[in-house]
Write a structure and sequence with these properties.
It is a single chain. This protein has helices spanning 2-41, 44-51, 55-83, 85-100, 109-141, 146-167, 173-197, 204-212, 219-253, 258-277, 279-286, 288-308, 312-326, 329-370, 373-394, 398-403. It has 404 residues and is mostly helical. The protein has one domain: Growth Hormone, Chain: A (Up-down Bundle), CATH 1.20.1250. GO terms for molecular function: transmembrane transporter activity.
Length: 404
C-alpha cells in the first residue's frame, strides 16, 4: 500500500507538472497573439496614409481581416478535431507573424485588403485553436483559469502597442512589422515543442464537466447559447474598434502626437489586463451576472468619455475605463455558453464574439464616413450597454442562473 500511494503521488505530481508547462506555453501563445495584433493596429494610421485610402476604403480593406478570420474559424474546429488543437495552434503561430509583415508592402486599399485576408485567416485560426486548447486544460485542472489566458492576450497587446508607440517616430511600418514577424517566429520556435509534447488527457474531471453540461437540443438552450454569444459579440466589437480606430481618433480628431496616439490602445489593454487578472476574485464575490452588468455599464460610460472627450488626456482615461469594464464580460459569456451546451456552446459563442471583434472596425469606418469618427465610436458604448441589459435579463432566467 505505501508503494502504491507513492506511485500514485508521483504520477499526480508528474501530471501537475505537465499541466503547468502546458499552461505556461498556452499563456505565451495568447500573449504573442495580442502582441502581434497590437503591433499591426498601431501602424494603421501610417499605412492608411501610405495607401491613400479614405475612411470607407480603409474600412473595406479591414474587412479582409474579418473575412479571412470568419472563413478560418469555421474550418479550425474541424482541423483541431482531426489533428489536435496543439498542432493547429503552432501552425497558426507561424503563419500569423509571417502575414503581419505584408501590409506595409502594399500601396493601395485593394492590395491591403488582399493581404489582410491572409492575416485574418491566421489570426482567426490561432484564436479558435488556442481557446480550444485552453478549454480542455481548464476542464482538466477544474480551476477557473480562463481569465488568465485572456489577461495574457491583453498584456501582449499592451506591450505591442507600447512598443509601437516608442518606435512609431523612428521606424517605418515595414521595418517595425518585419521585426514583429521575426520576434513572433522566434517565440513560436521556443514554445512550440512544449505544446506539441504534452497533451491534455481525457480526465474524469473533464468527463464530469461534459456530462454536467445541459445537452438538450431544445430551442431554449440553443437560444441562450446564441444570446451569450451576442453578449460576447457586443463587447468584442468594442475591443476591435478601439484596436483599429483608437489611435486614428486620437491623432486625427484630437491632434495627438503619433506616439501618444499609439499609447491609446496601450492604456485600454493595460486596464483590461488588470481587470482580467482580478477577474476570478471579482466573479467569486459578485457572481457572473453582476460582473457583466456592472462591466457593461462601466464600459459604456468610459467609451462615451473616450469618444467625445475634448482633450487627449481625457480620451485616454475613457479608453482605460472602457478596458476595465469590458475585461471579464467575454470570458463570462463563453463560460455560460459552455455550461449550457458544453464544448459546442463554447465554440458557437467564441465564433460570434471574435466575429464582433473583427466586424467592428469596418462598421466603424462606414459610420465615420457617414457621420464622424467620434460619433461612430459611440456605437461601442451602445453595444456595451446592450450587453449589460442582455446579461441582466438572462441572469433572471432559471437556466442562466444555473449556468452562472
Amino acid at each position: 500500500m505505501p508503494l502504491l500511494n507513492k506511485t500514485t503521488s508521483e504520477a499526480s505530481e508528474a501530471t501537475s507538472h505537465d499541466f503547468s508547462r502546458l499552461r505556461a506555453a498556452l499563456t505565451v501563445f495568447f500573449a504573442l497573439d495580442g502582441f502581434v495584433f497590437a503591433g499591426w493596429v498601431v501602424r494603421i494610421p501610417a499605412i492608411k496614409e501610405q495607401t491613400g485610402a479614405s475612411a470607407s476604403a480603409l474600412g473595406l480593406a479591414l474587412l479582409g481581416v474579418s473575412a479571412g478570420a470568419v472563413v478560418t474559424m469555421t474550418l479550425t474546429g474541424r482541423l483541431c478535431t482531426r489533428f489536435g488543437s496543439h498542432p493547429v495552434t503552432v501552425v497558426c503561430g507561424v503563419l500569423m507573424p509571417l502575414s503581419v509583415a505584408l501590409p506595409p508592402l502594399t500601396h493601395s486599399a485593394l492590395a491591403l485588403g488582399l493581404v489582410l485576408l491572409l492575416f485574418g485567416a491566421a489570426y482567426g485560426g490561432i484564436n479558435v485553436a488556442m481557446n480550444s486548447a485552453a478549454v480542455d486544460l481548464v476542464q482538466a485542472l477544474r480551476r477557473p483559469v480562463m481569465p488568465s489566458f485572456h489577461a495574457a492576450f491583453s498584456l501582449g497587446g499592451m506591450i505591442g502597442a507600447g512598443l509601437g508607440g516608442l518606435v512609431a517616430g523612428h521606424l517605418s511600418p515595414t521595418r517595425h512589422l518585419l521585426g514583429l514577424a521575426l520576434i513572433g517566429l522566434l517565440v513560436t520556435a521556443v514554445t512550440a515543442p512544449t505544446l506539441l509534447r504534452y497533451e491534455v488527457p481525457k480526465t474524469p474531471a473533464a468527463a464530469d464537466t461534459r456530462a454536467a453540461a445541459p445537452r438538450g437540443s431544445g430551442r431554449g438552450t440553443r437560444g441562450l447559447v446564441l444570446v451569450f454569444g451576442l453578449v460576447a459579440l457586443c463587447t468584442a466589437y468594442g475591443e476591435g474598434a478601439l484596436a483599429d480606430w483608437g489611435a486614428l481618433h486620437l491623432e486625427q480628431d484630437l491632434d495627438a502626437h503619433p506616439g501618444v496616439a499609439a499609447a491609446g490602445y496601450s492604456c485600454f489593454a493595460f486596464a483590461m489586463t488588470i481587470g482580467r487578472l482580478s477577474g476570478t476574485t471579482l466573479l467569486e464575490r459578485l457572481g457572473g451576472t453582476r460582473t457583466v452588468v456592472g462591466g457593461g455599464l462601466l464600459a459604456a460610460a468610459g467609451m462615451l468619455l473616450g469618444a467625445l472627450a475634448p482633450s487627449t488626456g481625457v480620451a485616454l482615461a475613457g479608453f482605460a475605463i472602457t478596458g476595465l469594464g469590458l475585461a471579464n464580460i467575454f470570458p463570462v459569456a463563453i463560460e455560460r455558453a459552455g455550461a449550457l451546451a458544453g464544448p459546442s456552446g463554447v465554440a458557437a459563442a467564441s465564433t460570434l464574439g471574435y466575429g464582433g471583434m473583427l466586424l467592428g472596425p469596418p462598421a466603424i469606418g462606414f459610420m465615420a464616413d457617414w457621420f464622424s469618427l467620434p460619433v461612430a465610436l459611440t456605437s461601442v458604448a451602445v453595444l456595451a450597454a446592450l450587453a449589460a441589459c442582455i446579461a441582466w435579463s438572462t441572469g433572471r432566467t432559471p437556466a442562466a442562473r444555473g449556468a452562472a
